[in-house]
Hints:
By secondary structure, this protein is mainly alpha-helical. It has a domain at 19-72: CATH 4.10.640.10. Helices cover 48% and strands 0% of the residues. The protein has helices at residues 5-13, 20-24, 34-38, 50-53, 57-72. It is elongated, with a radius of gyration of 16 Å.
Amino acid sequence: xxRNFKKARMEQSRxxxxxxxxxxxxxxxDYKEVNTLRTFISDRGKIRSRRxxxxxxxxxxxxxxxxxxxxxxxxxxxxxx
Length: 81
């Protein structure tokens, strides 16, 4: 019987990511908190995925909406150079 050792090793070493919003004590994401939102944006200006950030689905939706609102209000750039 052939076993997939690489997959088994990945499953062993995988641990849940820590929720950054919970660590900061933030319950509701606000578009005016630009410094907090910048942690969820890549250097190219894209919104980072849940896998990368470790947010819950509800928090990810709040962050995405807040980033989009902050971009419209010109608090965050749409892209970075």
